[in-house]
TrEMBL record:
<comment type="similarity">
    <text>Belongs to the aldehyde dehydrogenase family.</text>
</comment>
<dbReference type="GO" id="GO:0005737">
    <property type="term" value="C:cytoplasm"/>
</dbReference>
<dbReference type="InterPro" id="IPR015590">
    <property type="entry name" value="Aldehyde_DH_dom"/>
</dbReference>
<feature type="domain" description="Aldehyde dehydrogenase">
    <location>
        <begin position="3"/>
        <end position="414"/>
    </location>
</feature>
<dbReference type="InterPro" id="IPR016163">
    <property type="entry name" value="Ald_DH_C"/>
</dbReference>
<dbReference type="InterPro" id="IPR016160">
    <property type="entry name" value="Ald_DH_CS_CYS"/>
</dbReference>
<keyword id="KW-0520">NAD</keyword>
<dbReference type="GO" id="GO:0004029">
    <property type="term" value="F:aldehyde dehydrogenase (NAD+) activity"/>
</dbReference>
<dbReference type="InterPro" id="IPR016161">
    <property type="entry name" value="Ald_DH/histidinol_DH"/>
</dbReference>
<keyword id="KW-0560">Oxidoreductase</keyword>
<protein>
    <submittedName>
        <fullName>Aldehyde dehydrogenase family protein</fullName>
    </submittedName>
</protein>
<dbReference type="InterPro" id="IPR012394">
    <property type="entry name" value="Aldehyde_DH_NAD(P)"/>
</dbReference>
<dbReference type="GO" id="GO:0006081">
    <property type="term" value="P:aldehyde metabolic process"/>
</dbReference>
<dbReference type="Pfam" id="PF00171">
    <property type="entry name" value="Aldedh"/>
</dbReference>
<dbReference type="InterPro" id="IPR016162">
    <property type="entry name" value="Ald_DH_N"/>
</dbReference>
Length: 415
């Protein structure tokens, strides 16, 4: 098995000898990736379930396999136009010369996947890299070893490692990978890790695309039906047990409606997951460290005066293969609690209150720009007017999550 340095050298050598991928080669590779997903999608979903301890196969199909297949179909439908040179205006003294913008591949792209959606967040950047004519080396997330082992095998059936290669994550690989002289580096994950990766890439002046998560808010206007808002927010919160970068992290509700919203959110949670601990539809937390982190956030908040509701208390899961964490509502949350200072990344919804809608808007503006913003309002014109003043990576009005399913809308954060 070749090292990452050897794979990078081999891909750069292949680039020098054979050039970038042409239009036909890109088409063929994308179609081969689609065929791989059709043929091995179930096996990959089963491997992810084993890595998580418990995750329903349909959840992986809906949120990873199908979006990848849809993205490939979208790219194949537009690729011919994307690769064509584009004529632009030429000033009259230079006529009859022509001015063209010619799309060019950058070379070899490094891609660092994320464990929460190990297929989607590893292969989605790969689809873009291949569509642009590049070669790529993928670094699989360490928390998805079984899925990445199978993915590496299936990718070798698609093409040679001189075009696409996947290396398993390990402490040594994780440390070395972002410091390699790629022509571009793509990372999905936590902001703290993104800073480390950007510094490492800067030593070689490697351009970096960072897709980093954060605390995505849901704002509920006073006149919006609370039951409908609660259903949408809890559905978006509990997908993958909250281990989703665009999951609603906290919601802002009018102070005099807080108790009513909590009751609606409780009903929505029980409707979605009447039994969570042994429910095969409810995803586990992959390891004890992440489970204990979530429990620590709750203990810190409760110790400082926060109140919480869970369908049933969380048992200890020190050594079990399955570590589900209970759906949790948390309110009476105050500054100084850790849960307001870092992304939750679990099935805990923080409920904050406002007396005036401007107070809610200012709260969001005064914090780092979120990856996603959710706004619930009967008046969509008012909603758009309010949201225009908030920097966010994406926006869904009167629902959650769904903006990422639209191929024509860019996905990413602010920065």
């Amino acid at each position: 098995m070749r090292t990452v340095d050897e794979l990078l050298a081999a891909q750069k050598s292949a680039l020098r000898e054979n050039g970038a991928l042409n239009y036909r080669q890109r088409q063929a590779l994308l179609r081969a990736l689609a065929q791989m997903l059709r043929q091995h999608g179930t096996a990959l979903s089963e491997a992810i379930a084993r890595d998580f301890g418990r995750r329903h196969l349909r959840e992986t199909e809906i949120y990873e396999i199908y979006p990848l297949q849809a993205e490939i179909a979208y790219v194949l439908g537009h690729l011919r136009n994307w690769v064509r040179p584009r004529a632009v205006h030429t000033r009259w003294p230079f006529l009859p010369a022509r001015s063209l913008i010619i799309p060019q591949p950058v070379g070899v792209v490094g891609i660092i996947g994320a464990w929460n959606y190990p297929l989607l967040l590893t292969l989605l950047p790969l689809i873009s890299a291949i569509a642009a004519g590049n070669r790529a080396i993928l670094k699989g997330p360490r928390l998805a070893p079984q899925a990445m082992t199978l993915l590496a095998q299936t990718l070798r059936d698609v093409t040679s490692e001189d075009t696409i290669a996947l290396v398993q994550g390990s402490p040594d690989v994780d440390h070395a990978f972002p410091g390699l002289p790629f022509d571009h580096l793509i990372f999905s994950g936590a902001t703290r890790t993104g800073r480390v990766i950007a510094r490492a890439a800067a030593r070689n002046l490697v351009p970096v695309t960072l897709s980093m998560s954060g605390k995505s808010p849901a704002i509920i206007q006073r006149d919006y039906p609370l039951a409908a808002a609660a259903r949408s927010i809890m559905a978006g919160k509990l997908v993958n047990a909250g281990q989703t970068c665009i999951a609603p992290d906290y919601c802002l509700v009018a102070t005099d409606q807080c108790d009513a919203f909590i009751a609606r959110a409780q009903s929505a949670t029980l409707s979605l997951y009447p039994h969570w601990a042994d429910n095969p539809d409810y995803t586990s937390i992959p390891n004890g460290r992440l489970w204990e982190r979530l429990d620590g956030l709750l203990q810190d908040a409760r110790g400082k005066g926060a109140l919480l509701w869970q369908p049933s208390p969380a048992p200890a899961w020190p050594d079990g293969a399955q570590r589900p964490f209970p759906p949790t509502l948390l309110w009476n949350v105050r500054p100084g609690m850790k849960i307001l200072e870092e992304e939750t990344f679990g099935p805990i919804l923080v409920i904050l209150t406002y007396d005036d809608i401007q107070e809610a808007l200012d709260y969001v503006r005064d914090h780092p720009a979120p990856l996603a913003l959710y706004y619930f309002d009967r008046d969509q014109r008012r909603a758009l007017r309010h949201c225009k003043g908030i920097a966010a990576g994406g926006l869904t009005i009167n629902d959650t999550i769904f903006h990422v399913a639209q191929p024509g809308i860019p996905f990413g954060g602010i920065g």
